[in-house]
TrEMBL record:
Lineage, top ranks: Bacteria, Bacillati, Actinomycetota, Actinomycetes, Pseudonocardiales
Protein name, entry field: Anti-sigma factor
Keywords: Membrane, Transmembrane, Transmembrane helix
Residues that span the membrane, as ranges: 12-29
């Protein structure tokens, strides 16, 4: 009888180990793909306006940022493409485009894009002017 219970214990140990391995593989495969949030979000108070900047892309295709502007005291009339200054490794990049809500209101959001390639490891600074204080976010390109 002792021999039978020993072999069942061995089978049980192997079954538990197999379940742990299968569970670990399932967890690994179900992890979400790295997304925009992985590059980082910066939230800055620029006078009466809260500016949230999320880096979406910082690579050879250029730089893209999701921008959100929130306030309850001033009208958001600025042109984000004209007000944004991107610096890559100390050099200013030109040619921003804005795909988002137009001027007006107290809440705006959209995507700001620059097509100039961003090298890996580059020091990135995004500065949005036109508020009582500039909104500044910094990142390091992956």
């Amino acid at each position: 009888m002792s021999h039978i219970s020993t072999s069942w214990r061995g089978v049980a140990v192997i079954a538990v180990a197999a379940l742990v391995v299968v569970g670990a593989i399932a967890w690994w495969l179900s992890r979400p793909e790295p997304g925009p949030a992985d590059l980082g979000t910066r939230t800055v108070q620029a006078g009466a306006v809260e500016v949230t900047m999320t880096a979406l892309t910082l690579d050879r295709s250029g730089a893209a940022f999701e921008l959100k502007f929130d306030t309850h005291t001033v009208e958001l009339a600025l042109d984000p493409a004209a007000s944004a200054r991107l610096t890559v490794n100390g050099r200013q990049v030109e040619g921003a485009s804005w795909d988002g809500q137009g001027p007006g209101g107290h809440h705006r959001e959209g995507t700001l894009r620059f097509t100039t390639p961003v090298p890996a490891g580059a020091a990135i600074e995004l500065r949005v002017t036109g508020f009582p204080q500039d909104a500044i976010g910094t990142w390091s390109a992956p």
